[in-house]
Amino acid sequence: MTAAAGGRTIRAFDMTAVGEPLQLVEREAPALAAGDVLVRVAGCGVCHTDLGFYYDGVRTRHALPLTLGHEISGVVQAAGAGAEQFVGKAVVVPAVIPCGRCDPCSRGKGAICRAQIFPGNDLHGGFASHVAVPSVGICVVPGFTGDVEAPLGKSGVALPDLSVLADAVSTPWQAIKKSGLRDGDLAVFVGAGGVGGFGVQLAAAVGASVVALDIDDARLGALREHGAALTINTRDRAPKDVRKEIGAWAKENGLPRTEWKVFETSGSAAGQEMAFGLLNHGAYLGVVGFTLAKVTVRLSNLMAFDARAEGTWGCLPELYPSALELILAGRVQIAPFVERRPMSSINDVFAALKEHRFTRRPVLIPDFD
Right CATH number for 170-311 from 3.40.50.720, 3.30.565.10, 2.60.120.260, 3.40.190.10? Predict the structure, then answer.
């Protein structure tokens, strides 16, 4: 069964070819299948995955032209059969939407669901006025009064800024959950950009002592005020020297000398080599960042240290509410780490991100009207 989306026109910026300017287009909103919703976009964050599609030619599963963007917040405007309860609700759309019906989903393995939907990859994404997506796992934002610019909870941020929950916040949250990180542990984040920076805050919120590593002093300085107990600029530093420095600091402060939880959030070859080089006895390595580059490591270290390395893909929708709760309670800050830009400036924003001219994660606000 399908439902009309009210004859709405969607305005969007489409990728037509690798590296070619994103094109403003118009198309009719699709008929909504049972369980689907049409969301009026309030904000859409720009992720380095988008840059991978656009600049590096990482293949999208939906043929071009395609509207990119998977960090989406907004208000549900219309719904297919069975999803009517979401109309009028403020929501964050999961960046990875498992089907919820297959065998992996039934076993809590939605991250490997072969029928999963990735907005901006499998279907048109959030660099648009509206987006049509499945309602499975959609995260409803409590306390919404109808004003998209009203501050929510103790966070001080409004609905557009919550778009970054869909990846920059939720992805490290899933990695933290998979690691078993708990109060009293020592966590190390290799890469203190968008994903790593929120990861630092999330780890501190669960009671860990957190070390942030990066090659950018400005990023590290910001995190000293938001969860990082120790920051280290690793430019031109060997992993063994950084490991010794963290070990000395841990000893001095009565923190664990073994079983560190290390999270690779830089998405760079150098970062991955650094993260692997920080493993100690019983350590955990969570690979969160992505790069096409290859690295050379000695896998026998995992055996010798009885350590564990694990990847993480997106975030299960069922984990979104707990991450959102930390934001709305003011325990994870978003405002200092995001920067709004009009969606009409999308080509300039992509170029600036590629040239590392942003210090905060850009959130694009639709300005089609």
Answer: 3.40.50.720
